[in-house]
Amino acid sequence: MVEFQDADLRGSRFRNVHLGGTQFRHVDMSEAELRGVLLRAVVMRGVELIDVDIEGEVRGLTVNGVEVGAYVEAELDRRQPERRLMRPADAAGFRLAWETLEKLWEGTVARARRLPPERLHESVGGEWSFIETLRHLVFASEAWVLRAVLGDPAPWHPLSLPWDEMPDADGVPRDREARPALDEILAVLGERRATVRAVIWQQTDESLDRTVEPVEGPGWPEPYAFPVRECLQVVLNEEYQHRLYAERDLEALGPTPSGEPVAYAP
Fold it and tell me: One Pfam family, short name please (predicted)?
């Protein structure tokens, strides 16, 4: 246990650090940036939350005695009607969700093509570039469908990109310096999405609840008996959320070279 008393730690960086059970009293966290942080069973008293931007999974959040998670979910569903489709209950619902994602991504890719190719490698606010986002979606399909559902222990393409906090694993690529062209990574992603589509279209209401055998060998997910439904739900979530992030960042990258404004899809 380390105690910091009357210390100036401005600009400090904490990476892969366990802070469970820590106490913060009379601490100034102005302009702090938290990414990939787990805040479970956290208690805040006497805090001042001013101009705070929170983006992530919000459940069981109580502010001044009011549980706000349900309000947030309802408002997001109102703003994004297709969001409800990403919580399918049956096989037909999964097929509808995937078809919806295909249409949404067509518009997002068309929007990206209107920018100079080099801009698609730019990071906005420290987030993944558009190309890196597509590379991560390759990884998501490989991890949760090719590996977890279909049983391939090492389905990785060299351009696959795991999330930054994932521990290194033998054979799993993580080349942050790669700069594939848009069409190159779309071709790889198209192959992975075709596999996902085929698996979804093979499902029945009963098979969605089938438990797959754990896949041994280094990689992600770790060996565990997942229901097919859970694996496919992860891919839906990844595709849906990362498209929203991509749209947000394309908006920040500005208009097309011709100066034509780009319509923003919230």
Answer: Pentapeptide
